[in-house]
Amino acid sequence: MHISSSIRKLNYLFVILFIALSGGLVYWQVIQSDNVTSTIHNPRRCLADNTPQRGRIFDRNGVLLAESVPDQNVCGGYIRKYTESSLANIIGYYVPGYYTPGIEGQYNDVLNGANGRTALGNEINKVLHQALVGNDIYLTIDVRIQRLAVQEFNDYHPETDPFYFQIYSKNLNAPSNRGSVVISDPQTGEMLAMVSSPGYDPNRMVQTLTHNDLSYYNQMNQDPTHPLLNRPLQETYVPGSIFKTVTLMAALDAGTTTLDHPWDKKGAMGPLVYDGRQIFGDNLGYGEFVFHFPISTEFAYANSDNIVFAQIGVSLGLNSWLDYAKKMYLGQTIPFDLPVAKSSVENSDGTPLSTLQLASNAYGQGVDSVTPLQMSLIDNTVANNGVMMRPMLLSKVTDNNNNLLQTYTPQQLNTVISKDAAFQVRKALSAVTTCGSGWHLGQNFGYQSSIAGKTGTAQLGGTQVAHGWMITQAPFTLQTTDEDQMPNLSIVAMRENGGEGAYAVGPAIWKMYNDIFAKGYVKAQLPTPLTSDPYCLNTGLWQTR
């Protein structure tokens, strides 16, 4: 009896020890496995079976953009490789142990297999010391359009290009390789290209950081042109006259103006004084291009008259103007697949806008500060009959066998203005490029009537050269009366300190549209070209003595 009791106690002891051992194995091999594997004191951390087979990244057409390739000289036996360096601002780079920007960082758990249908399988892989398997990401980006955008944006030589020596463009622009391009589908919100210039080489970044060499990173981080900055998403700028579009959208929708509203000479040219300060900039060229009054709101928009738009903004009223700004996500967090800096139209200290500030904001100076992505959303809202779509960068996620795990579909963010108001704004945009400040672009680079857009030259004060902007959409023509004719492509571009907006980025934009449509990268029914002369004379958008 005494022996049986001792055997029973010994059995209990073995059971307890077995449970403790099993618990320890589960704790260290499952719960703490990631920490054990990653610690620098663990010599097994760099073995292939402890390194995830990181997922790939593709463009919308299945073109490979990022993958992990074998390299026996690095920890884990794999190194990340990128096929399109101009997408570094979107994709980022991946090196274990270092900060990971872009899609690589934002969707790290998807790419390394921690999330998604493969997550449970990867937990089993950890226990069995088999390599983890990541998921693949497909972007909405079309790498063909991305390469076109990079090529045309960089083909800018105001010192030598004959275009910049014509009477209307001479001495209006300055050399600059800094800026952004955002190309998208207004009806879905899909980003087709996104250029941040200058950029950096993600492959060189990976190759150096992998060996703990910070020389290239430090070089890029200390470069005064800030190549590591994601300009379309993270930098805000004074918008200049492209912001007249915001005011026009609000005023047409609220009914405080119409395109044919008349403005007499004083109303169009001033002087205009708010809070004891005079506003300048009628931009009409009285006696050279304008000889009689009244002019219309459409004429004022086409020729970028600050005086008229200051009054339109003030007439709309501060609360109404801010309400429309909020509906356009100005000052709001934009839902996107990567972080976006907030644009702003209000004082940073929280004090209400003065009448002078509202008037200045209304034509794009004042305290307005916007990202290029923000202006793309506003441009797209006009093209999409007043409905703002959520911007999209991810298309779908699959496992490594191409089995679909998740799809991303277009989503509406807000109905900003009515369908009729949006159509009227499109007409005004087309008046700019057919008869106004952008008409020389069609004259020189084609598709004269099918590209609608607004130019902007954002004044920075002092001796600083202005930022040059354009927001555009196509195809659209002044000949249409069909409100359902919505442009299916938009391009927003800006060049830092480039000078006159029409010429700082206009030629590049026109060439982008020409190539994209001609090569069939975006399918579109292009309208019959509309000749500025005699159309602009017949409609009163040009004047003669």
Automatic annotation (TrEMBL):
Lineage summary: Bacteria, Bacillati, Chloroflexota, Ktedonobacteria, Ktedonobacterales
GO process annotations (BP): cell division; cell wall organization; response to antibiotic
Keyword Protein transport: no
This protein's record includes keyword Cytoplasm: no
Domain Penicillin binding protein A dimerisation: 54-130
Protein name in UniProt: Cell division protein FtsI
A Pfam family the protein falls into: PBP_dimer_2
Transmembrane annotation, as ranges: 12-30
Domain Penicillin-binding protein transpeptidase: 179-475
